From TrEMBL:
Residues 36-118 form the Carboxymuconolactone decarboxylase-like domain. It comes from the Bacteria. One of its GO terms (molecular function) is peroxiredoxin activity. InterPro entries: 4CMD/NDH-1_regulator, AhpD-like, CMD-like. SUPFAM superfamilies: AhpD-like. This is 4-carboxymuconolactone decarboxylase. Pfam families: CMD (PF02627). It comes from Bradyrhizobium centrolobii.
Length: 127
């Protein structure tokens, strides 16, 4: 494991998803999933998210679309909050989900719109 890249990835992961979210994920690390969490921090968050060629906002927009199409609702919720942290607006999120509907399918968009509304309500204190 590249400790420097791992630490960079952990820093980026916390900045995007929030320290509480990441700490919650890490408190469940055990001998079985430790190698996966290390790989996640080093490669996903350090090697890819840590690159300078795309701004975090753009990466978040891409992730919202891809995760919505893959119908990974738990990850979608987390990355939606991260996208807002990275400056993606609610109007931009709506437009991304409209694109998802056309290219990824209506069922994926239906679920994604529902989750987005739930996340917005949580943030607005209306949940």
């Amino acid at each position: 494991m590249d400790k420097k890249m791992h630490d960079k990835g952990l820093e980026v992961r916390k900045a995007v998803l929030g320290e509480a979210y990441v700490n919650s994920a890490l408190k469940n690390v055990d001998d079985f999933n430790r190698p996966f969490q290390e790989m996640l921090n080093e490669y996903c968050w350090g090697t890819v998210w840590g690159r300078e060629e795309l701004p975090r906002k753009t990466r978040s927009m891409l992730n919202i679309a891809m995760i919505a199409i893959l119908n990974r609702q738990h990850e979608f919720r987390a990355h939606l909050k991260g996208a807002l942290t990275n400056g993606v607006t609610r109007d931009e999120i709506r437009e991304i989900l409209m694109q998802v509907a056309i290219y990824g399918g209506m069922p994926a968009a239906v679920d994604s719109f529902r989750i987005a509304r739930e996340v917005f309500a949580e943030i607005d204190g209306k949940a």
